[in-house]
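Hey, sorry for the delay on this. The queue was backed up all week. Below are the sequences that define the complex (chains, strands and the ligand SMILES where applicable).
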Amino acid sequence: MTEIIVIAETKDGIISPVTSELVSAAIVLGGNPTVIVPGVNDTAATSGAAISGVSKVIACVGEQFSNYDAAAWASAIDACAPAGVIICAATQNGKDLGSRLAARRAVSVVQDVVAIDGGVLTSPIYSGKAMQNVSLQGDAVVSIRANTFSPSSDGGNAEISVMNQSADLKTAVREMIAKASERLDVAEADIIISGGRGMQDPANFAHLERVADTLGAAVGASRAAVDAWEDISHGMQVGQTGKTVNPSLYIAVGISGAIQHLAGMRTSKYIVAINKDAEAPIFQHADYGIVATWQDALPILESELKALLG
Amino acid sequence: MVYEALDFYDIESECTEEEIMVRDMVRDWVDEEVIPNIEAACREGRFPEEWGKALGEMGVLGMTIDEKYGCAGMSYVAYGLVCQELERGDSGLRSFASVQGSLAMFPISAFGSEEQKMHYLPKMASGEWIGCFGLTEPDYGSNPGDMITKASDQGDHYLLNGAKMWITNGTVADVAVVWAKLDGVIRGFIVEKNDPGFSAPEMTGKHSLKASVTSELVFQDCKIPKDRMLPSVKGLKGPFSCLNNARFGISWGAIGSAQACFHSAKEYALSRIQFDHPIASYQLVQNKLSWMLREITKGQLLALNLGRKKDAGTWIPEQISLAKMNNVDMALEIARMARDIHGANGILDEYPIMRHMANLESVKTYEGTHDIHNLIIGRWITGIQSFTRTL
Amino acid sequence: MPEIAVLVKRVPDTNAKIAISGDRVDLSSVKWVMSPYDEFALEAAMMHKESNGGTVTAITLGTPDCDKVLKDAKAIGVDRIVRVWDDSWSDLDSNQVQSALVSALKELSTEVVYCGKSAADTGASSTGPGVAERMGWASVSNIIGIEFEDAGVEVLIPRNIGNARTGVSLPAVISCDKGFCKPRKPNVKGIMMAKRAQVEVLGADIPTSSINIVSHTPPPQKASGQKFEGAGNVPTVVAALRNDANVI
Ligand SMILES: Cc1cc2nc3c(=O)[nH]c(=O)nc-3n(C[C@H](O)[C@H](O)[C@H](O)COP(=O)(O)OP(=O)(O)OC[C@H]3O[C@@H](n4cnc5c(N)ncnc54)[C@H](O)[C@@H]3O)c2cc1C
Ligand SMILES: Cc1cc2nc3c(=O)[nH]c(=O)nc-3n(C[C@H](O)[C@H](O)[C@H](O)COP(=O)(O)OP(=O)(O)OC[C@H]3O[C@@H](n4cnc5c(N)ncnc54)[C@H](O)[C@@H]3O)c2cc1C
């Protein structure tokens, strides 16, 4: 039986919840994993050890972990990790690190796994238009998308060993620049929340913006809103004579769902509609429809998302 | 809506890789720069200057002319594909390119002296200098042979007198290729913007080709140096050989207009619901769409075949007449049908339909009217010319 | 003067419908394009050359069908176009792809590599960092800004708390996101150059694959639309977006 190694995902020196999901994935793949917890010190390792199902924890400690540096992280972690199948989170850095580790060990990497069934790993390809199912024939690195496995519960008590492993940085962060608060363009965004005439006043778009901020979304609008209100710029218009968008999630608020609007967003992967009129045509196209006024729905949406996404 | 070109008989596979690359280059540019801005340009009745520059940067102005003169030396099929994509944006844009390449640069390259070629062609290819072509006069349209604009030899210079009408790009042109009679024989002259006695007032009030500049050219004792006459052509052959090239481009261009109308009609028919179903599901509408596809496909095959003949040098002018006449005619009919399918929406400038339809009315008339081409073909069939009553 | 390489990949147009026939995707009727992020990588490579001199080589891996993306790159102005392939290869995994590319990069004495942050087909984002590791180089991924310096580059990388202005000394692999530059367009002269350009074909020794593609399958059908009465159901919908739809 090959060994399974989970690379804990950390944020600000704390183990992220997705790590417990990776442990569940490891168990499905066939074994109680060794969890490697990278950090500038070993404090996060205890919460790794508390995840049930973990066989042991290695705190991989070194100065290089203060900032993400692909080469340094990979060399330090590689030195701590035994041979076997490595699992990491399919986050931006997780995938990057996973690729490095795989290359270091001259094995393959399977990214963005969303299901594991009888040794077959499934990942979306062609931006989700098809799924690829692969089996491993030896060691490999596997990255797992968040929310694929339910997190393994707490209550474990694995043994922790500490390995000091320093590595040379190949990049140097010179400055952190606060992100400009400039709005995302709807044509670029992966999540869009759009408002229509039902928003009643352009000032009410502030509610949409707050939701957008929590989601990292762009704010769009129907043409009725763009035509009625100067503050709502044409660049925000979604639809036949506006922009054609194709996000993973489109939230339509106070938009009736006219055919010209649909022409611009019909191919969104998921559509959520909030409209007070249960008969509004938008509901025929929504994956999740909520019959409610935005005044009632948006504050709840905002607080739910804040609770979930911080 | 992402544009998907109709290519029912896989014309693409008949083209070379670089022809497709050139087409895609222009297609992308038209999608990004032209289509979002064309309605505004039409409303303001102007040709956006930056489009001329962009065409120069892309290198499609006079693109069949030799590389020695700063041009690309590409095939006529490539030129046709470019015209097609430009006219999918707007016939006015394609007109600009036709006039620059086929009507102004071509005569200089075919009939000009080496000095004239080196002086004018590179700057015209880059779009730095704009050209126009003055043949039509107020009283002589289909019958240019009887033109009255005259040149007289003054020893060390020529004097031009007369007026041209309906001249595309006239007001904005730096260089005009003007056809005038010298001792009763038609000759080509290069007139520059600042030549004394030359003016080019713009004609206004057009309901068609609104994004194209149309002008009068007025010559009042216009003095031009001796070396501005095109040395190597005399008679109607000069202007007609230019027209053959431009007409060839139009036969492709019209396919572009037709494609734009077809695409819009198809999308609309699929999304417009009446009597509980998309109108695309009704047989009468399908019949219209099927007819459009049939005509576009025939037009494409005609244009491609003609293009290959042009590249091989095995064409005859009557084949160009047929292609120009047929393809403009089919495009106009498709525009009208597309308008019908769009219902009331079809009259709005939200859709490209009415603009193409109105544009195509000009295209039907210029470069030899539809019926003049009928007469050209009639003469080929019967051997009898029927342009005038004097047999 | 740096030897610059840019990795470009031929992928189905992102608007293409992906059909499955039998247990494999059927790509016989899709339109092929250069993977969109690679266009930004290509632009960055050209900018690098304009700033620091050197030569730009566009490299792809694949069958002769992939020559088109190299020609596209040539039309933009790269100096050399190289395709890595061996007719005995098929269905390469990341380990094999990276080995093959690394072999070509070494042969070309490359000093800096640009690539897209992910390819539009696999979406894996593994090639850039994987190639860097095998070369023993630095790598930065998902960059959204770049400045060229004498012995390196300074890039902007988005992080949770802001954008990190990061110095990278060469050699390095730089994986590019979109948005920081406008990829230049070809022109007719470039296209004529591309027509005449010769694709250099390189082979490589590659390891055997350690994964086996079992099948391609259509994506799971999403449940039909659900409608909830009242704002009290917002939490239910948020949970569904998170757990079922996986979009937040
Ligand atoms: C040629 C053409 C092109 C067009 N192009 C576009 C385009 O690109 N994009 C586009 O969007 N439209 C376009 N339109 C316009 C389109 O037909 C519709 O008029 C427009 O989309 C309607 O916008 P709306 O849904 O915001 O407004 P309405 O249709 O007025 O809908 C408002 C909705 O808000 C709901 N509502 C009201 N109060 C509340 C509340 N307090 N809480 C929750 N819901 C509430 C109502 O129930 C209603 O469903 C085009 C039209 C034409 C003719
Ligand atoms: C927008 C626009 C741009 C133009 N740009 C240019 C340009 O750049 N340079 C240039 O030189 N010209 C240009 N023209 C002019 C164009 O070439 C002429 O309009 C065309 O040649 C027809 O001439 P006409 O308008 O005088 O019509 P006419 O010749 O008067 O024809 C009117 C009608 O009579 C018919 N007709 C004429 N003779 C006969 C016959 N013998 N038998 C049967 N029917 C006949 C025609 O088919 C037509 O239906 C442009 C025209 C337009 C509309």
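The mean pLDDT of chain A is 93.

I'll add it to the shared folder too.

S.
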